[in-house]
Amino acid sequence: MNSSETLGRIRIVLSRTSHPGNIGAAARAMQTMGLRRLCLVSPQRYPHQDAISMAAGATDVLDHATIHDSLPQALAGTALVIGLTARPRQLSHALVPVRVAAAQAVEVALAQQEVALLFGTEMCGLSNEELDQCQLLAAIPTDEAYSSLNLAAAVQVLTYELRMAAIGDIKPEAAAFPLASHDEVEGFYGHLEQTLVEIDYLDPAVPRRLMQRLRRLFSRARLEKEEINVLRGILKMVLRQVRRP
Amino acid sequence: MNSSETLGRIRIVLSRTSHPGNIGAAARAMQTMGLRRLCLVSPQRYPHQDAISMAAGATDVLDHATIHDSLPQALAGTALVIGLTARPRQLSHALVPVRVAAAQAVEVALAQQEVALLFGTEMCGLSNEELDQCQLLAAIPTDEAYSSLNLAAAVQVLTYELRMAAIGDIKPEAAAFPLASHDEVEGFYGHLEQTLVEIDYLDPAVPRRLMQRLRRLFSRARLEKEEINVLRGILKMVLRQVRRP
Are residues B221 and A223, on separate chains, in Cβ contact within 8 Å? Predict the structure, then answer.
């Protein structure tokens, strides 16, 4: 299953949202991360122009958002419901960081089952009745002194973690330009050493690990073929200066 | 060092931001994640009521935001500048996912050096001149079909990853040798450019992106203080050769 199918099994449920702008911004956040299914439970003002303008063109998600009268309706068919909470709860469920929750959500989705991420109101979060519908609670680790995350910002962080979990291990980027071969790099070091001797910077009798130092610097950069050409072109011009009568 | 001190060494730099509301929302995102230093380079409209209302009480960050006329001023004292970009660039720097970039930023901060995360405009991102100031580019892995992340949402994801890296149980190792500061690296580039002109390798009238190319090479290596001294020592000797009668 590719990441798009996996993320297609995860829905975002916003319950009793006060501000329609937050619904639009949440839709935008979802669409950037490849999530498509937005469920709105008793939104206070919706549809609304603020939702459309904050969605900034993320119309795929907003146009297909479903509206529900009750939470159980929005959660129908799910195998796992994860509630987002800003604070520890008294009658506590398991409370995990969002990174852990995202991994569990993706695991369930990979097994072809449906998952819901549930967000409560902007002011009060999840009610006790909503908490009872969750199997797991997740929190975004915020600063103790100021934990007031905007609803759409919380959706952004969570959907980002879902996408990171779904696309799996971070693949290093393939090098954009061909790297220089070992022989080419050694040719450059020889040319560089010769130049440093001729400009009187390197005394062959007292080399003081200078070349090792420069090798360490350039090897961190992993020189490309074209860069070797540039560097040797520079050395050639330096030597021309040194050798002029 | 605790995570608060580590994050205190990382500044967020917003360049030429169009909408003051985004500045406020970015301040709020930062404050939830325990980042405190916001630098604004030539904001188009600031101060502004929209910034205050979108900050939603995150006044610690907003009240202490600094305003700068030029990017180098905002980057003064940094050892690592990471640019956020939405797309691959032609003459590309190393481009890594934000999770990897956050780990590197925290590694440098743990070594008690300063880091900047640089965000360009809402419409166009970073300019080429801004890219030239970065040692590393980072991208948030978005859906191919819709990658339009709001500026404050991008700041939220990035600061979340910085916080996760800073509080993480796996602490990155501190760098072994002190990195050169932004000013020191810029001083080296200036010296290098001058030298290339004097040896007739670089024609100021037809620069052909040579300096960008060399910046890209050296920024991959992340120059150390001591290496800057060696490289500038070499340039000094070259110039002595060029200038001899």
Answer: no
